[in-house]
Amino acid sequence: MKNSIEMINKTVSSDRFIKQKQDGESIFQKFYSSQEKK
Fold this sequence. Notes:
The chain has one helix spanning 2-37.
């Protein structure tokens, strides 16, 4: 039982990390494209 809980926690944290990375990349792309327009 403990192992499955640890696995779920690892999966959740990695999903969260991936989403944060994607959010950061999209923010960077928006910033970069707005800089290019000037």
